[in-house]
Automatic annotation (TrEMBL):
GO terms for biological process: protein deubiquitination; proteolysis. GO terms for cellular component: cytosol; nucleus. It comes from Carpediemonas membranifera. GO terms for molecular function: cysteine-type deubiquitinase activity. This is ubiquitinyl hydrolase 1. Keywords: Hydrolase, Protease, Signal, Thiol protease, Ubl conjugation pathway. Pfam families: UCH. InterPro entries: Papain-like_cys_pep_sf (IPR038765), Peptidase_C19 (IPR050164), Peptidase_C19_UCH (IPR001394), USP (IPR028889), USP_CS (IPR018200). The keyword Signal applies. Residues 35-451 form the USP domain. Residues 1-19 form the signal peptide. Its EC number is 3.4.19.12. Belongs to the peptidase C19 family.
Amino acid sequence: MHLLKAATVLLGSAYGVYSLEEYYKHNYTPRDLPPGLKNTKATICFANSILQALSFDDTFATEVDEVVKTAYKESKGTVESRDALRKLRDILRRLATIPSYKHLLDAEPVVSTFMDTSQEQDAHEFLTALMHLIDGHRAKATATSPKCSFAGVLGTPEMDPVRTAPLPSLTGTCTTSYTCINCCGRAPFSISRFNSLLLPIPVPSDAQGTGANVLPSCTLESCLDDFFKEEIIDGVACMKCGAVKLLPLMTERMMANLASDDYMAGAEFTKGVDALQTFIHATNVGAASTGKIFEGVQVPLRPMPSRATKTTHLTALPQTLMLHINRVAMLRGQARKLRNKVIYPDKLDMGAYVGMPDGKDAPTGAVEGPDGVVMATEEDIARYTRPEVWYNLKAVVCHAGNEAGGHYYTYRVSAGRVFKCSDRDVTEVSMDEMFTTRAFQMAVTLVYGRSG
């Protein structure tokens, strides 16, 4: 009788007559805890932990639901991938339901669609693969990504201002700029998207090469500082350096031709000298602008080897911020798991890493980039007072084990309550347990939700 009723409800739900939730409410005893997740093969804790960490984000679940509707309506992707997305949507909905009626869910059919579940994988790799699956089924309006403009040649890339729909809840944008150390020439900003940030653990200079995998404690803010710090890039080729070197030679030949009364040749060299001077004094010159400057001018301009500084800033912050701590490092030629205490806060201000203002108060001279992000010049940025952008801690994914393997589990916050989710085992714990020394040493993924 129970099986007959289940079949009736399942068939009814397919035609919109009954819902599965109604069936669960009538046939399962409610439990004042989130559901757990099966791990039959003992290999998918990496996926279970990320799904539990994302369960608080209603917007993400809604976005997945929209992707599912679009995928089925337009027959996008394979049947298997569409079914996986539908099951993912159902799992996210039920993980967020407290009290829960179905106490145990199975994510293995979802995970096995795009990852090998025969062995343990990395939680960060799972999130990357999951977002790749979702993005691959998004509507075309939101699937277009801005092109990275830097191509190793300063002065030639061009920013591609792609127009897209609003960013998904897990997606942010950042800009990267390169400045030549020799001539101070700048390439145009390149814009890229991210669903998560992979943060390094700062290793003190006196600890490098020691082989120790237990290093001094650090803060999450210091990891972010290290991620966004200015870098020196070797082996770049700079067009402006080439122009600076070529200008004296072109000027000398121009003067020689004018002195020999070869005014036609002298006029051609004059055009070349003028174009070189314009190019040298221009800022943020891209490929299209460079083509216009040298249009109709014969100039043997070649890039010169140089070094550049690379700076990265956030331009659009996601609603849900995923921060992965890279705990694997090469020590004495071997991969080792770093067991540093990374002290993370309950509330995180990301304003210090926002390099471009947005909205109506953007400084004059700003240019508009993808997704309505307003980008400014470096001079504007220097004068700009960075805003406060606050996030609240929503989940902590921990990894107990070493570089070869171990077990993932999650602390997740829901309506002021904290739950420890370790596959099928779900228990309520105190808020303090998320901020112990053990948690600071085991944390590999931090999930923050934007406040306000």
